[in-house]
Prior knowledge:
- By secondary structure, this protein is of the alpha/beta class.
- It has ten helices and 17 strands.
- The protein has helices at about 15-25, 45-55, 70-80, 85-95, 125-135, 155-165, 200-205, 250-260, 290-305, 320-330; strands at about 5, 30, 40-45, 65-70, 80, 100-105, 120, 140, 170, 185, 195, 215, 245-250, 265-270, 280, 310-315, 335-340.
- The strands form two sheets. Strands 1, 2, 3, 4, 5, 6, 7, 8, 9, 10, 11 and 12 form a twelve-stranded mixed sheet that branches. The protein has a five-stranded parallel sheet with strand order 15-14-16-13-17, with helices on both faces.
Amino acid sequence: MITVKLKTDRENYDNTVSSAAEILKNGGTVAIPTETVYGLAASACDKEAIKKVFDAKGRPQDNPLIVHISNMEMLERVACDIPDAAIRCAEKFWPGPLTMILKRTDYTDSSVSAGLDTVAVRMPDHKTALDIIEKANLPLAAPSANTSGSPSPTTAFHVEADLDGKTDAIVYDRECAVGVESTVISFCCNPPRILRPGAVTRGQLKEIIPDITIDKSVLSKPDDNEKVASPGIKYKHYAPKTESYLVEGDSKAFTEFVNKQRNSIAVCFSEESDSISTHKLIYGRESDELTLAHEVFAVLRKVDELGADKVYIHAPSKKGVGLAVYNRLIRAAAFKVIKL
Ligand code: TXA
Ligand code: MG
């Protein structure tokens, strides 16, 4: 398959939106930018198109997809029995990096939800994505546009590295502003529960849902036989090929530890970088979790290019958006944590 490259500079923008919408309406797949990560989109109502998404990513069939919408009328098409708290969350956080699990209608194809009676819905805060959804007038199922298991793509070039020749088109837009995937919360349990942390934090959600809980899989490894609330949780995720460890401890301890290692890479904060004498990649400022979220996946992709035996990643704090970064990194490290 030849993958069409669609540009979003001013000259090409309208044509790109129309072409992407046309491909999607005709049952094709298009990688689109969002504010979190790039997504591989297909019509959420088209079984064949959804199958193409699963195939292109090599995604297990039992891992459901998020449906992307551009207005509240589309929400009514795809979900029903929507609780008041969910409407209030939509009013406060949409468009934005929040996905809500709700009871599904029969509007979307059941393969989108991997046979569950729920649907994950989000309205992305990205003009190009919203314009494409609006033009196609279709809710779009879109998982992150990476090969299943590898770090999520925050640039169109990451998408190209994984999916060139496997999707009908890629929209080349700017790098994603947030850098980690949306917060996923389920309204199909009482009280509602955070299944995946993201840029909308627990603190922000508590203002609307004071008794909101966090699923235990966010920070710990699910048992092999356990029935998980979000099927995606049980798969290996975001992992570089290099053997990865998450290292907890202060900058002094981390620096001393990595400086003693051989043929390894340190993924560190900019504040401590000068004290590190081994190969290193900086993923942002310790004092600003947003910078860590923005770079974490790009850095995980770079790790493999350096060809070391092992990578030691300095764990961020679990505060605010830091929790989302920690959650991705502990999976990238396959739950191998070194406590100094
Ligand atoms: O920011 C994002 O959410 C990005 C962009 C493209 O929008 N998308 C994304 O999709 O991260 P994906 O497929 O990589 O992650 C979707 C997560 C998975 O963990 C999946 O198991 C969960 O959402 N999920 C989807 N539908 C669900 C459902 N009905 N019930 C429980 N979990 C669900
Ligand atoms: Mg993903």
